[in-house]
Amino acid sequence: MELIERLQSIIIDTTRALDLLDTGYATVKSASPLTLCIEATRLNVTEPVAVMTDNVRYKAVTVQGETVVINKGLKPGDKVLYLKANSGQSYIVISKV
């Protein structure tokens, strides 16, 4: 039984070390280029490592000659929810919080 428990422990530790996918919160330091301060580690990440989804990009349309802003985009100080992928090789901003 001890061998099985040890193998399970090794598998769990290895899986955690891979750190394939995780979510967390960050603060926007700069919108262009996108720079985030990760709350858990105080690590600053910038483009191209930090990327935005369409949910947080600036969007505007012209209706009858007037511009209507649909999404204001990100600005410094905004709190965001991110998805960390590939052991921190990419930080994908999902939405503002």
How would you describe this structure to a colleague?
With 97 residues, the chain is α+β, with helices and mostly antiparallel strands. It is built from 1 helix and 8 strands; from the N terminus they run H-E-E-E-E-E-E-E-E. It has one helix spanning 2-18; strands spanning 21-31, 34-38, 44-46, 50-52, 59-63, 66-71, 79-85, 90-96. It has a 6-stranded mixed sheet, with no helix packed on it. Strands 5-6 form a two-stranded antiparallel ribbon. 13% of the residues are buried. Pfam families: DUF2577. This is DUF2577 family protein. It comes from Lacrimispora defluvii.
The count of strands amounts to 8
Proportion of residues in helical segments = 10-25%
Rg computed from alpha carbons, rounded to a whole number of angstroms: 19 Å
Rounded mean pLDDT is 90
Beta-strand level of the residues, as a percent range? over 45%
Q: Quaternary status of these chains?
A: single chain
Which structural class best describes the helix and strand composition?
Answer: alpha+beta
Number of contiguous helices = 1
How many angstroms does the end-to-end distance come to? 47 Å
Strand order of the largest sheet: 3-2-1-7-8-4
Main sheet characteristics: 6 strands, mixed
Morphology call: elongated
Order of helices and strands: HEEEEEEEE
Which parts are unreliable, with pLDDT below 50 for 5 consecutive residues or more?
Answer: none
Protein name: DUF2577 family protein
Organism: Lacrimispora defluvii
